[in-house]
Design goal:
The protein is about 55% helix and about 10% strand. The protein is an alpha/beta fold. It folds into two domains: about 10-150, Nucleotidyltransferase, domain 5 (2-Layer Sandwich), CATH 3.30.420; about 165-285, no CATH class. Helix 3 links the parallel strand 4 (about 85-90) and strand 5.
């Protein structure tokens, strides 16, 4: 039987992470727990046993927290500490502002997950009661126990990529929601249109044909155009969806669906008008 006690890669990574956190939260530093908000900020200065050394509540924006950090540093030094480590929740963009203000003063900053604060609040007195001063103490206590993390610091190019990625994610979410809404409306009022292609929203021909069909006040008016004029209109709409040559099978299927009565008739007129608006929004979103 082997007596080896080699550490796993997970053990080593965890030990390295805890070692880095201990460097940020040494015993010679007091901990400043700050509950960030829009205008009213609550802060406490504690030792590593969560004893509150000083408390302050100020009505300022995040960019005006520099004076609060200076006050906290002075309070910590008066209590015998060499410096302070700032702890906060990663609240929106405000923690980035606080991080910059702390870095300008040579102070370290760590973040505490909001879920941990929520659980600690519940364990504190078995209630869900929330107050900013209490949360500031809980944030400092969690940081003292190394139940926190070092936030990511980015370079300017990487920060730009992150913002562009967030924008792309937002557009993807919006486009997906528009497709789901369009599918839902068509299933109610004109389900035959969805059967015209095996993958309707991935087919440029189907999208162009739907765009053409929804360009008139009712499907009967589109049907009266005739198959040839309908095809010509679809060809003109194809560039909107990134293609030039329509697939005749899909065009014919959509044209035949124009005369299909299946669907909730009382809803059809309003639903198709709404579908036209959603389709236009989807085209605009895809073009961004």
């Amino acid at each position: 039987m082997s007596n080896r006690s080699d550490l796993s890669r997970g053990d080593r990574n965890r030990n390295d992470r805890l070692g880095r956190l201990r460097e940020l939260l040494p015993g010679s530093h007091a901990i400043v727990g700050i509950d960030l908000a829009d205008e009213v900020q609550a802060a406490v200065v504690t030792d590593h046993d969560s004893r509150v050394l000083a408390r302050r509540r100020v009505t300022v924006k995040a960019w005006q927290l520099g004076d609060l950090l200076d006050w906290a540093l002075a309070q910590a030094k008066a209590a015998g500490f060499a410096s302070v480590t700032v702890a906060c929740e990663p609240t929106g963009h405000r923690w980035r502002i606080l991080d910059q203000l702390a870095a300008e003063r040579g102070l370290a900053l760590v973040c505490v997950q909001p879920l941990l604060v929520y659980r600690a609040r519940e364990a504190e007195d078995l209630t869900f009661d929330k107050s900013d001063p209490k949360d500031a103490v809980l944030i400092a206590r969690l940081a003292a126990g190394l139940r926190c993390y070092e936030p990511e610091r980015t370079t300017e190019p990487y920060a730009r990529l992150r913002h562009l990625g967030a924008r792309r994610s937002q557009l993807t979410t919006t486009a997906t929601a528009q497709v789901q809404e369009l599918r839902d409306v068509l299933e109610c009022a004109w389900p035959a249109a969805l059967d015209a292609s095996p993958a309707p929203f991935r087919s440029a021909t189907w999208c162009a044909a739907l765009h053409t069909a929804l360009s008139r006040p009712d499907l009967a008016a589109v049907r009266r155009l005739g198959r040839a004029r309908f095809l010509a209109a679809v060809r003109r709409a194809m560039p909107l969806f990134g293609a030039t040559h329509p697939r005749m099978r899909i065009v014919d299927a959509v044209f035949d669906a124009l005369s299909d009565p299946t669907g909730v008739q009382v809803q059809r007129a309003g639903a198709l008008e709404r579908a036209g608006f959603v389709l236009a929004d989807w085209v605009e979103t895809r073009a961004r």
